[in-house]
Design a protein that fits this description.
Length: 407
């Protein structure tokens, strides 16, 4: 809405009708005092002000408006028939008016100016609203960021404390595992010794008693193996510095350990050249020991065991990665012609204490592959398997040639 201020009623009515024909809302005042009162009570977007009025003239009214925080930004157009000299025009602009029009007025030009200032006023209001919204948004985001930083700081402190607590618990668990393994192994060893003495001295002629004793000895051996495997699994939590390792030497040591079993089962082991990598040799020795041991254990009764161990350099840490002579990773495959397994159980075979086979027919604790997986992951590598029932199994490992700290 705009306000027309003039002490001549006829002028106000004529101008009001003209503006209303152009869909412009109009309010009127017939004196400076009345104008001030209305302006302070109502929000106007433009004021058309006559200069010459009784009491407060137009200059005085605009000067008062310019000093008021609420009204200082309202645009004012002076409209005068008497004060048309340059000094009055200059004074009008000095008091804060945006335009000074002398009479007789070109109505079309006045309408155009009014519409222009109304449009400017709307744009300024939109900019102001946008500025207010942006200020609120900035404030909200700053508060959110401050809250987030506080929460992150609190969470970091919690994680540090939890990590320290976890390290302490790990250390205690390792100590516990060592003590338990020693305390359990010793009585089991004595049970085995005394049972064998009883068998040899007192039960040699009683076949049924010998059978029971043999079962007891076998159960004790399984318990001892389980304790040894659990201890090996717990040791993997400790930090050991990697070193340059020739995997060919590690593999030959493992094959040498299985000499008796290889000969007894008439097994064949084929290998190609393996790389030298940064690793913890004792741990990778354990991986090969578990994989080759499983291949010999889960062999068929109709075929002699055949184990093929191959290695190739690849570009990326991916089972399907392309070969590359300059690759930074190696893909090692341990393939056998044993009983195999159904791949729907692939996720289970690397979980501790999980076994897919009858433990009466195939001895084991179900920890070997879990140990292998944990070791490979500690070396920042990957392990998986491919198999079909009765078609053998292939265990595939991806290892970096150079040490990579796990993040």
């Amino acid at each position: 809405m705009i306000l027309i201020v003039d002490d001549i009623r006829a002028n106000i009515i004529a101008l009001k009708k003209t503006l209303e024909l152009h869909n412009i809302d109009v309010d009127t005042a017939e004196s400076g005092e009345e104008a001030l009162k209305k302006i302070l009570q109502t929000n106007y977007c433009l004021i058309i002000m006559d200069v010459q009025m009784p009491g407060l003239d137009g200059f005085e009214v605009v000067k008062i408006l310019s000093g008021n925080k609420k009204t200082k930004d309202i645009p004012v157009i002076f409209l005068s028939a008497l004060n048309i000299e340059k000094k009055y025009i200059f004074k009008g602009y000095e008091t804060g008016a945006v335009e000074y029009i002398t009479k007789p007025v070109d109505t079309d030009l006045l309408i155009l100016k009014v519409k222009t200032f109304l449009k400017i006023y709307e744009q300024q209001n939109q900019l102001k609203e946008m500025k207010d919204l942006l200020s609120k948004e900035i404030k909200i985001r700053k508060e959110a960021q401050d809250n987030l930083e506080v929460k992150i700081s609190e969470r970091t402190k919690e994680l540090v404390l939890k990590n320290e607590e976890l390290e302490l618990k790990n250390h205690e668990l390792q100590q516990f595992a060592w003590v338990v393994s020693h305390d359990l192994n010793e009585p089991i060893r004595k049970i085995q010794i005394f049972i064998k003495i009883i068998k040899d001295l007192y039960l040699a002629k009683d076949d049924k008693a010998v059978d029971y004793v043999n079962r007891t000895i076998k159960s004790a051996e399984r318990m001892q193996t389980l304790i040894t495997d659990l201890l090996a699994y717990s040791r993997l939590s400790s930090k050991v510095q990697p070193e340059k390792t020739d995997l060919n030497e590690v593999l030959q040591e493992v094959i040498s350990d299985f000499d008796y079993l290889i000969e007894r089962k008439n097994a064949t082991i084929k290998t190609n050249e393996l790389p030298t990598i940064d690793s913890i040799p004792s741990q990778l020795r354990q991986v090969f020991q578990n994989l080759i041991g499983n291949a010999l254990k889960f062999s068929t009764n109709t075929e002699n065991p055949l184990i093929e161990i191959t290695s190739e350099l690849i570009e990326t840490k991916d089972f399907e990665s392309k070969l590359s002579p300059d690759g930074k990773y190696c893909r090692i495959t341990v393939k056998d012609n044993g009983i195999g397994f159904d791949e729907i159980y692939l996720d289970r075979i690397f979980i501790i204490f999980q076994s897919l086979n009858d433990r009466q027919s195939y001895e084991g604790t179900g920890i070997g592959l879990a140990i292998a997986k944990k070791i490979i992951e500690k070396h920042n590598g990957l392990i998986t398997a491919k198999s079909q029932v009765g078609q053998g199994a292939s265990f595939i490992m991806i290892l970096p040639l150079e040490y990579q700290e796990i993040k």
